[in-house]
Amino acid sequence: MQRRAALFLLACIPFFTACAIIPISHPSQASVSKLPSSPVTLKRAQFLMGTLVELTAVAPSDAIAQASLTAGFQEIRRLENMLSTWIETSELSRVNQAAGLEPVGVSAETFELLRRALEAAEYTEGGFNIAIGPAVQLWNIPEAPRIPSAMELEIAAQYVDYRRIHLDQTRRTVFLEKPGMRIDIGGIGKGFAAEKAAAVMREIGATGGLVAVAGDFRVFGRRADGTAWPIGIQHPRKPGKILAMLDAIDEAISTSGDYERYFMKDGVRYHHILDPETLQPARLCRSVTIIAPDATTADALATGVFVMGPVRGMALVERLGLGAVIVDAQGMVIVSARLRDRVKLAP
Ligand code: ADP
Ligand code: MG
């Protein structure tokens, strides 16, 4: 998770409009309730997890819609405090601080997140790797546009083996085997939070909703008029332009791309998704959108498939029965089998 400078708050609106997935034709900030019996739609935004979080709730009454938004934000804030490696007292920070020293007891949720992350690492043959922390710190994109030396990367390579993250289910502990190891959940944490927030909103009584944590989206139920949630996928090279559209119901949509957090040097693009094999920015895709039943899977796989590239990545998506829209390094758009009837590509 990324803590951006406070000043960034001022820039968060343009950031969001450029973000990977764009919900289309949201109702406005105000309640749109007309008839006494018609559902109410409310939408609110807050700056959390270093990014703009936008929640939309559809509920039988204004009070329920309000309560569900409040609870959704509270849930994301709670998870941020538990998981953010930018917060020194978070459970994950304590795990990182104890690298090479001792196992650290964690909550059931942190344990679940890490278990899911390691599962994603297996699926993606190491493309998705939360042990990537030391390399992420070296590149520090986009804050420090500097290319680490070969020597620096060689040293970091000794600390990025996810198989050295040990989860003990019985004791519910996490142990990083080597001092210097560092877990980074930037590629899965926002999806995990979106999933949990949607569940809480539903519990409070929202019949439909949309949770948008930057490029990680979770929708549930339907919009007030009974229709699905229209979602636009951002074009990776045309800021603010939509590449494709699809209607979503009870599923998650996550995009990972090379076009938001990056810098250019000598005509080469250096972005924030690293190939764990080389510790260089992954080069086979421009963007990967994954559609999955839950947001944790969608987020982790978007990052992991980005690293795997269109051929191996799409084969994995098909094997898992998920959906994907991949823009490869040449700009070609590839749509997975089950999405071909659902995705409308922009002309
Ligand atoms: P975003 O955070 O911009 O939504 P992603 O979900 O693709 O995009 O996550 C990218 C972040 O994940 C990086 O900023 C970094 O913190 C972390 N990361 C980078 N490379 C990998 C990787 N190969 N596997 C897992 N996480 C990664
Ligand atoms: Mg991700």
Tell me what you see in this structure.
By secondary structure, the chain is α+β, with helices and mostly antiparallel strands. It has a domain at 91-176: ApbE-like superfamily (T-fold), CATH 1.10.3980.10. The chain has 9 helices and 19 strands. It has helices at 12-17, 62-83, 91-97, 108-123, 133-139, 150-156, 189-204, 295-308, 310-320, and strands at 21-23, 40-48, 51-59, 104-105, 165-168, 173-176, 208-213, 216-220, 229-234, 242-248, 251-257, 262-265, 268-271, 274-275, 280-281, 285-292, 323-328, 333-335, 344-345. Strands 2-3-7-8-11-16-17-18 form an 8-stranded antiparallel sheet. The chain has a 4-stranded antiparallel sheet with strand order 1-9-10-19, with no helix packed on it. It has a 3-stranded antiparallel sheet with strand order 4-6-5, with helices on one face. Helix 7 (189-204) packs antiparallel against helix 8. The structure holds adenosine-5'-diphosphate (ADP) and magnesium ion. Residues 128-130, 132, 136, 184, 186-187, 190, 214-215, 256, 260-261, 272-274, 276, 299, 302-303, 307 line the site of adenosine-5'-diphosphate.
